[in-house]
Input
Amino acid sequence: MTQKFRSSLRTNEIYIPATLSEIYDLLGSMMLHAPTFIDKTERFPERNIDSEFAILTESFGVVHKKLGEERYLALMDLAARAKALFAADPEDTNGKTDQGYKLLHEIEDIIQSVRRRRVVTKQKDDEGEVTGD
Output
């Protein structure tokens, strides 16, 4: 009897990005797995649209102070709208997936603008360096 592959990276804890650059990386991964966000390799069977957007929105909460209230609320709204669009087009046949991608790009733009502002104003990250995080 053959056993399914089980990732050695798998833990019972959900990883929540804790920096702006980690959120940016998450968004890149989300673009690769849209519109269903299911891992076709089956290495991460728990990955789906609900889990990925929960991780994304939780990460916004982690960096809420760095974002500011206005950007935080905008990101939460964009994420909810993007999730609804992807959910409405799981087969990528009706154009809503393309609209969802545009919203993920808007989220990226906001994250990158915050990172740029932090560098320009020389704000230090949690490790005391000026990185944009």
Observations:
- The chain has a mean pLDDT of 92.
- Residues 85 and 96 are 5 Å apart (CA to CA).
- The helical segments are 20-33, 49-62, 64-67, 69-87, 96-120.
